[in-house]
Amino acid sequence: MKLPGKIIDANIILRFFLEDDEEQFRKAKAFVQRLELDKEEALITEIVFAEVVWVLNKVYHIPRQEITEKFSKIINYKGVKTILNKEIFSESLRLYARHSLDIQDIFLAVLSKTKDCSILTFDKNDFKKLGCNYGEP
Fold first, then answer.
1. Span 18-32, pLDDT tens digits
2. For the residues of the chain, what is the DSSP string, one character each?
């Protein structure tokens, strides 16, 4: 897959969700609408995905279900590109809404199931809850 010429930083998505800076929200909204209509393409990386979810929940105390609903829509816009299959992001958000686990661990669990591999960790409890293969190094 050829990557688009633009990579989205977390603050673009955060300004769009939070509407806490009028000028930045207006610019972010226009950009997100172009992504939705496939008039523009941009990449969301795994690190930005995790950062947005973490900041919305831990800093702004937005409920997990609301984060899942809003972010799932954006992830699935035609103009939004990801290096990994978008379903990994979508499934991670679905699980995030149902569990009180960190998005990073959920993402690793979904990725390990999708790619049929194991997670090396010392924190077995979270991965056990998520039903993926894991073990110590």
1. 999 999 999 999 999
2. -PPPS-B--HHHHHHHHH--SHHHHHHHHHHHHHHHTTSS-EE--HHHHHHHHHIIIIIT---HHHHHHHHHHHHTSTTEE-SS-HHHHHHHHHHHHH-SS-HHHHHHHHHHHHHT--EE-S-HHHHHHHT--EE--
